[in-house]
């Protein structure tokens, strides 16, 4: 990251709020093209409640040149991780980063952002922002995150729900440094979810978990549209399926807000989501 720090610092500075907070998302070419997940992600901010204000504070981090080129054509704050692109060019026959490379790249980026003194909300690009989640973030605790559960073999493991907020303080800095150390000793450690790693390393004294009622996913959808803040296309690996079903989410949201407006409702409408058509069978 050292060779990229100046460029990153400039992008963060231009996108930052007055209290040095940015919104980060990371993607590759599969999510960044006309009609892609990135388009839907940005659209959700435009049509969400009290989310338009965040559009100018989103930093889209691209791991390849195609994603970067598309980003700069539609959004003002884009950053390319050229170090990742360079590594890929040296690997014959490789067209995309492997799983471990992406994990390492993410946490190195988070550490650099914290070192530069910026708080950040990290969001997967397939998380639709329908309401302002900052209303639920804790201004005192270091990390606020959305977690879910995934029962396997009679036990339940914690899974990420595509969204967390991290303050730039000494605790977050040390936590991210520990993760860098752990991955050297235990290469598979980063396969754990951020929810598991935070719970294990920070023991909860500086962590707030978000209420599942407000932060949904296709695996664990929140039925009450009047309470949902974000919705992620979990349980869905196929990109075309993601685009199709996230489009349904945004269309349902548009219909719901129009219905609430028409009925002068207080938000207690019986309106419900359509079930995902392609992501969850």
Automatic annotation (TrEMBL):
Q: Which residues cross the membrane?
A: none
Please name the Pfam families in this protein's record: Nucleotid_trans (PF03407)
Q: Which residues form the Nucleotide-diphospho-sugar transferase domain?
A: 54-246
Q: Which InterPro entries match?
A: At1g28695/At4g15970-like, Nucl-diP-sugar_transferase
Q: State the name under which the record lists this protein.
A: Nucleotide-diphospho-sugar transferase domain-containing protein
Q: Which organism is it from?
A: Quercus lobata (Valley oak)
């Amino acid at each position: 990251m050292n060779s990229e720090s100046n460029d990153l610092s400039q992008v963060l500075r231009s996108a930052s709020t007055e209290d040095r907070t940015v919104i980060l998302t990371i993607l590759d070419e599969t999510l960044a093209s006309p009609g892609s997940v990135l388009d839907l992600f940005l659209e959700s901010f435009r049509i969400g409640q009290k989310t338009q204000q965040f559009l100018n504070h989103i930093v889209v981090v691209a791991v390849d040149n195609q994603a970067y080129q598309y980003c700069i054509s539609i959004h003002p704050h884009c950053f390319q991780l050229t170090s990742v692109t360079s590594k890929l060019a040296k690997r014959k026959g490789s067209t995309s980063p492997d799983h471990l490379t992406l994990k390492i790249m993410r946490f190195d980026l988070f550490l650099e952002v914290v070192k530069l003194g910026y708080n950040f909300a990290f969001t997967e690009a397939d998380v639709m922002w329908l309401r302002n989640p900052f209303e639920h973030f804790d201004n005192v605790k270091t990390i606020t995150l959305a977690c879910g559960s995934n029962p396997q073999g009679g036990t339940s493991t914690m899974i990420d729900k595509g969204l967390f907020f991290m303050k730039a303080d000494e605790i977050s800095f040390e936590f991210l440094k520990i993760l860098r150390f752990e991955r050297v000793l235990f290469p598979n450690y980063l396969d754990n979810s951020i929810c598991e790693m935070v719970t294990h390393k920070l023991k909860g004294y500086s962590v707030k978990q978000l209420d599942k009622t407000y932060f949904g996913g296709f695996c664990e959808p929140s039925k009450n549209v009047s309470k949902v803040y974000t919705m992620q296309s979990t349980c869905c690996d196929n990109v075309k399926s993601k685009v199709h079903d996230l489009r349904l989410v945004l269309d349902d949201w548009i219909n719901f807000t129009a219905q609430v407006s028409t009925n002068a409702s207080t938000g207690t409408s019986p309106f419900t989501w359509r079930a995902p058509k392609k992501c969850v069978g």
